[in-house]
Write a structure and sequence with these properties.
The protein is of the alpha+beta class and 83 residues long. It contains 3 helices and 3 strands, in the order βββααα. The two termini are 18 Å apart.
Length: 83
C-alpha cells in the first residue's frame, strides 16, 4: 500500500490522508479538520472502494457556495494520483 497526504484548499479540512492498494482501492481515509462526523462517515463508506469510482462520485460536490468541499478535494487528490 502507498500512503498519500493531500493539503486541501478552500475548505475547513487542513489535511487528507489515505492509502491506496495495488488495485487503487482506498483504505484508512482520514480528514484533519472539517465536519468530523460527516468526514468519518465518508471514510467508512469509501473503505475498500475503487479510487476512480470515489473521485467520480465526489467530484463537484459543493459546500456552502465555496465551489468545492472536503469531498471534492478528495476527488482532486485522487485525480492528481491516478491519471
Amino acid at each position: 500500500m502507498t500512503n498519500y497526504n493531500y493539503k486541501p484548499s478552500g475548505v475547513c479540512s487542513v489535511n487528507i490522508n489515505f492509502d491506496l492498494d495495488s488495485q487503487n482501492r482506498i483504505h484508512n481515509l482520514a480528514f484533519t479538520g472539517g465536519c468530523d462526523g460527516n468526514l468519518k462517515a465518508i471514510g467508512r463508506l469509501l473503505e475498500g472502494q475503487d479510487a476512480r469510482y470515489a473521485a467520480d462520485v465526489l467530484r463537484g460536490n459543493d459546500c456552502k457556495g465555496r465551489g468545492t468541499s472536503c469531498a471534492d478535494q478528495l476527488a482532486k487528490a485522487i485525480d492528481n494520483i491516478i491519471d
